[in-house]
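Question (not urgent): is this output format expected?
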Amino acid sequence: MEDFKKGRSRVLERDHVLMLGWSKKSLSIISQLANAGESEGGYSIVVLAEYPKEEMEQELKTATMSEENPLLLRGSQVVFRCGDTLLDSELFRVGVSRARCIIALSRGDMMPDEADSSMLRQVLSLKGYGFRI
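Got this back:
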């Protein structure tokens, strides 16, 4: 039960959108995905990031409950998992091989060169799963 609360349990979704990383752009991306998936009844969006699950959930909840311009999920559901986006075991846990598409985000606190090298490592990691990038 503790693993589930902390966002360490396995994701069972298929054909989901997988977002690797969390930044100030994440909520905007989730909003755009929700708009795009509305005609299909909504998307399953799985987020894997190195932030505590509770913090990401609270940020989403705050955005959806906002009185000014609330984030509308339009039938989409968002599942959060905490972990290292470069580790194969973590990628397996969030169903990387079953994902419809993958969105990779750099952390906002990185210098540009550091963010580029991190993204390159992420791309190389995903190529091992057969994704064409």
